[in-house]
Design a protein that fits this description.
2 copies of one chain form a homodimer. By secondary structure, chain A is α+β, with helices and mostly antiparallel strands. The first copy, chain A, has 2 domains: 3-158, Beta-Lactamase, CATH 3.30.450; 162-220, Winged helix-like DNA-binding domain superfamily/Winged helix DNA-binding domain (Arc Repressor Mutant, subunit A), CATH 1.10.10.10. Helices cover 55% and strands 13% of the residues of chain A. Chain A contains 10 helices and 5 strands. The first copy, chain A, has helices at 3-21, 45-53, 61-67, 83-94, 124-153, 156-159, 166-176, 181-188, 192-206, 211-220, and strands spanning 25-31, 37-41, 73-74, 100-107, 113-120. In chain A, a hairpin with a 5-residue loop joins β4 and β5. The longest helix of chain A has 30 residues, at 124-153. The first copy, chain A, is elongated, with a radius of gyration of 21 Å. The relative contact order of chain A is 0.12. Chains A and B meet through α5, α7 and α10 of A and α5, α7 and α10 of B. Chain A binds a DNA duplex through α7 and α9.
DNA sequence: CGGAACCTCCCCATTTTTGGCGAATAGCTG
DNA sequence: CAGCTATTCGCCAAAAATGGGGAGGTTCCG
């Protein structure tokens, strides 16, 4: 695997940027459409292991909050109410994660989602000032790091990217909008059987086992615009 | 509709930024998960009408290319081969769209996708230089404009954002991965009947007419992480 | 403490989707 | 021009999903 070397490069960027940005921790975490995820970060390995083992991503307000948000966000503006979230925060601070944090969500095609985060223990006032003056640079740094990260896996999913024919896209798009076969066929003015051919060829191209899977893959691969 | 006023604001930002960036045309175009789209741009109304009427988004290499790309991209690096693309380019240049262009794709939660574009008629050499020196500012401007754009529709889809229960997410996620009901139920260690309850309640919450629709909505709303 | 939301289990009838056969026309590309 | 892909049509039987009922337990928030 030559990806090991470049993942190290990414880690190098991360630690380098931490010093540049003068923060305690800096994290880049990415999940692509195939579920593969990798991260480069400065947290302790113990905390990372714990986080994965406990599947804390499901609880972590930073992940949950950023996943449905466009703008970069200060951790204080997230929803920390709820028992699991509060417990999580307790453990996190014990593990050395700063109480202050700022995260930039990044989205790519194929449903890729990444998070670029800085965290620290400054006081509220200082942190406020810090984020204000660094938002722009943090956004650009997030783009930069994500770019580097994408270079690691380039080739693997670009090559596998299948193209769908216009009719196949039409078909899957309507199915994704909730139409069933009969309605879709009527809308496209074709026989239901013809529609089946499209669905099946799309399924084949996408390596999907059924219609729902095909639609899901079409969406996450960015082939459909619903 | 009070959105008319703010859409004018957006248009104001666009024309303002065009002068700041010293380009012929500047375009912001956004599509959200519900299919609503709006744009603020400096192209001629005739060209815009033509574009919509002909559904050129399906052909336009800028749209198609950026939709499956993360990085900002120079138009020259896109794939202009293929008959429809070449015809489209001919019409576009006739309509006053510059031959040079640079587009920044922007993605938000809920499947939102927007495109921030500058276009001009500079020579290749000058354009090369121009983009090199302005990438950073263009990225930031794209974020800024998108932020303004999101403010227009804020409230409409934030309020409608339904939460799914953990089990509902589990269920839809596995279905999106291609598992059928039997396999999904087994994976989740529950009876198939129980699984149905989740699927149905998720369908209800999402206003979906069938499983495929529910999965599609879950994905485009950013509720599922496949 | 009481309501709300979540998780879990079951049956029957009907509708919808899928699997497995095959085949013809048109258009673009090498 | 040959070859490939896209588009379009059909039938039958099996498998899967949906609709419409009902019911008991836990957990959490106000």
């Amino acid at each position: 695997m030559q990806s090991a070397a470049t993942l190290d490069d990414l880690q190098g960027h991360i630690t380098g940027l931490r010093d540049v940005f003068d923060v305690e921790h800096l994290v880049y975490h990415s999940v692509n459409s195939t579920g593969q995820q990798y991260a480069a970060l400065t947290y302790s390995p113990a905390w990372v292991a714990r986080y994965i083992e406990q599947d804390y991503a499901r609880v972590d307000p930073v992940v949950q909050g950023c996943y449905r948000r466009f703008h970069p966000v200060d951790w204080r503006r997230l929803d920390w109410s709820g028992k699991p979230a509060r417990e999580f925060m307790g453990e996190a601070t014990d593990a050395g994660v700063g109480r202050q944090g700022f995260s930039v969500p990044i989205r790519g095609p194929s449903g890729q989602f990444a998070l670029f985060t800085v965290s620290d223990r400054r006081t509220d006032a200082k942190w406020e000032k810090y984020t204000e003056t660094h938002v722009r640079d943090l956004i650009l740094a997030a783009h930069f790091v994500n770019q580097k990260a994408l270079e690691i896996e380039r080739g693997s999913d670009t090559a596998a990217m299948q193209k769908l024919s216009p009719r196949e896209i039409d078909a899957l798009t309507m199915l994704a909008m909730g139409y069933n076969r009969a309605q879709t066929a009527e809308s496209l003015s074709i026989s239901e059987h013809t529609l089946r051919v499209y669905i099946e060829s799309a399924r084949f191209k996408l390596g999907a086992s059924n219609t729902t899977h095909a639609v899901a893959r079409g969406l996450t691969l960015g082939l459909l615009v619903v």
